[in-house]
């Protein structure tokens, strides 16, 4: 892909680690020069900024915020408009794993926390992003008014397996992200705003490392026909595709990037 594939202002949540960090690096690699990166963790954001050090002409706004807090989300997107004047690409990606316990053992607070971050966080960000994009000129069928990608999961399409850990809160939260992406992807397409979900399989990021310290999930990763978990960069490339004019006819979709895990 060309290094000038993307041209505009980007906003990424959960940009301090894993997929969000790799996606930030990829957005810049493929042309973005004005980007707002947000996360709960200042340390994570500092790491991401360090990875981009030395990039010619790059302007970065770093914002510590919590996607489950309405005021934080509104404020962060107002900062984007104040600094950069517009928004072309948004990746709503911040998320947590959810309590890995079956429903009969689940505390309400654990279920609600997962929904608040993984689902409500995406809704809040998307709502504010749409308000900005709707005010921009429609640059035609290939560019439109903007593109939004929501990080769901293959567990937004299927359940966690019957053997091993059940994670109902995560499955519910990610199915909801797919639903929101389809509903809004359908509604806003005619306004030139493309919204899609990305559904990764297992990806070797800190969220997964924290639950796989003893390597017990390696056999699970190997069930993907490609025989391994993904690297975050492989998800980032698919995100860049969905945001780019190369995906100009892709709207309201849930793109699966899971090494074939859910295909059989
Ligand atoms: P990660 O833990 O490496 O990164 C998540 C980032 O989100 C962290 O930097 C964290 O600080 C931030 N974050 C968490 N809660 C937040 C909040 N309330 N507000 C703002 N930021 C917050 O995890 P990752 O694997 O890169 O996950 C990114 C997304 O990808 C998540 O939505 C996750 O569910 C999804 N996903 C991950 C995998 C996987 O196997 N790693 C697979 C499918 C989907």
UniProtKB/TrEMBL annotation:
Keywords of this entry: NADP, Oxidoreductase
Molecular-function GO term, any one: oxidoreductase activity
Protein name in UniProt: Short chain dehydrogenase/ reductase
Keyword Oxidoreductase (UniProt): yes
Family: Belongs to the short-chain dehydrogenases/reductases (SDR) family.
Keyword NADP: yes
């Amino acid at each position: 892909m060309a290094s000038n594939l993307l041209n505009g202002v980007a906003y990424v949540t959960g940009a301090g680690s894993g997929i969000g960090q790799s996606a930030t690096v990829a957005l810049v690699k493929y042309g973005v020069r004005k980007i707002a990166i947000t996360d709960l963790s200042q340390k994570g954001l500092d790491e991401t900024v360090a990875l981009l050090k030395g990039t010619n002409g790059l302007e970065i706004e770093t914002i510590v915020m919590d996607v489950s807090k309405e005021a934080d989300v509104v404020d962060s997107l107002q900062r984007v408009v104040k600094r950069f004047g517009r928004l072309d690409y948004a990746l709503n990606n911040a998320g947590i794993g959810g309590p890995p316990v079956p429903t009969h053992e689940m505390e309400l607070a654990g279920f609600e926390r997962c929904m608040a971050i993984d689902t409500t966080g995406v809704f809040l960000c998307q709502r504010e992003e749409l308000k900005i994009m709707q005010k921009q000129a429609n640059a035609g069928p290939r560019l439109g008014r903007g593109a939004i990608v929501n990080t769901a999961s293959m567990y937004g399409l299927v359940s966690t397996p019957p053997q091993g850990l059940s994670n109902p809160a995560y499955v519910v939260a990610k199915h909801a992200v797919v639903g929101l992406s389809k509903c809004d992807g359908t509604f806003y397409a005619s306004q030139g705003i493309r919204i899609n979900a990305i559904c990764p399989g297992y990806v070797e990021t800190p969220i997964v490392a924290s639950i796989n310290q003893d390597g017990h999930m390696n056999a699970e990763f190997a069930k993907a026909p490609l025989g391994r978990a993904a690297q975050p960069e492989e998800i980032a490339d698919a995100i860049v595709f969905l945001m780019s004019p190369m995906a100009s006819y892709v709207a309201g979709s849930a793109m699966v990037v899971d090494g074939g895990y859910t295909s059989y």
